[in-house]
């Protein structure tokens, strides 16, 4: 009931995840002003994302929702999603992205969605895998099934955060393995992650999938970073 919602907004105000202002009754996670200024990826830059993988990985198509730039207040969205127990924001952002992607035919020919796995240790510590929620948001709009547990991170590698481009690629060599090939073989898989920087981590996972006969991969991330590494 609306009066209950209004009452809760008074005693437990909700704040915009970007600018910190109090949200009104009709706003969810992000105020309308910040939502209007959401730094969405321009269509002409999607080919730049695909170029990251030229000569490394055969990617059918790739897309991201927003730009990730140093100092941007929108980076707080990703911080909340990844470290502050707000993966629900990831699900809603992914669903919003999926609405446009569906109209563009992005999901055509794709058979299933696979969230990039975390190491078991990191997932236990965090309590969730944010990529599961991204996959859930995409699935809600596209109608595609989500397949989990068929790819595992077999090595808990060091964080990529403070590594340069070459170090990032070396740090992810051989860290993923397909554990249920029958679930993926011969299918077109949409592999999803939260942030794409050099592409090293998602490419390492995708390579383990495309090693299966007749299997193809497309990619989606919530954000793409243009920052120099």
Please tag this protein with its features.
alpha/beta; 38% helix; 229 residues; 17% strand; two-stranded antiparallel ribbon; globular; 4-stranded parallel β-sheet
Would you write up a description of this structure?
By secondary structure, this protein is α/β, with parallel strands linked by helices. The chain has helices spanning 2-11, 32-36, 46-51, 75-83, 87-104, 120-126, 130-142, 165-171, 200-210, and strands at residues 59-68, 112-115, 151-153, 176-178, 188-196, 216-225. The strands form two sheets. A four-stranded parallel sheet has the order 1-6-5-2. A two-stranded antiparallel sheet has the order 3-4. Strand 5 (188-196), helix 9 (200-210) and strand 6 (216-225) form a beta-alpha-beta unit. Helix 4 crosses helix 5 (87-104) and helix 5 packs parallel to helix 7. The radius of gyration is 18 Å and the shape is globular. The protein starts with a helix and ends with a strand. The mean pLDDT is 87.
Write the layout of secondary structure elements.
Blueprint (H helix, E strand, L loop, with lengths): L1 H10 L20 H5 L9 H6 L7 E10 L6 H9 L3 H18 L7 E4 L4 H7 L3 H13 L8 E3 L11 H7 L4 E3 L9 E9 L3 H11 L5 E10 L4
Parallel strand pairs: 1-6, 2-5, 5-6
Antiparallel strand pairs: 3-4
Helix pairs in contact: 4-5, 5-7
């Amino acid at each position: 009931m609306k009066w209950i919602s209004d009452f809760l907004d008074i005693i437990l105000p909700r704040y915009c995840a970007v600018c910190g202002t109090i949200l009104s009754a009709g706003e969810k996670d992000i105020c309308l002003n910040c939502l209007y200024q959401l730094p969405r990826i321009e269509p002409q830059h999607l080919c730049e994302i695909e170029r990251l993988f030229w000569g490394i990985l055969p990617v059918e198509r790739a897309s991201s929702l927003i730009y990730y730039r140093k100092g941007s207040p929108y980076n707080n969205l990703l911080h909340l999603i990844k470290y502050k127990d707000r993966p629900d924001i990831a699900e809603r952002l992914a669903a919003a992205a999926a609405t446009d992607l569906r109209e563009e035919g992005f999901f055509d020919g794709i058979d299933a969605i696979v969230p990039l796995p975390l190491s078991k240790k990191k997932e236990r510590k965090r309590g969730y895998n944010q990529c599961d929620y991204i996959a859930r948001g995409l699935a809600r709009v596209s109608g595609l099934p989500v397949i989990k547990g068929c790819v595992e991170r077999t090595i808990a590698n060091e964080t990529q955060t403070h590594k340069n481009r070459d170090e990032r690629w070396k740090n992810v060599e051989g860290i993923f393995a397909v554990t249920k090939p029958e679930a993926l073989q011969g299918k077109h898989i949409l592999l999803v992650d939260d942030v794409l920087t050099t592409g090293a981590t998602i490419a390492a996972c995708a390579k383990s999938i495309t090693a299966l006969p007749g299997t193809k991969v497309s990619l989606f991330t919530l954000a793409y970073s243009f920052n120099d590494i």
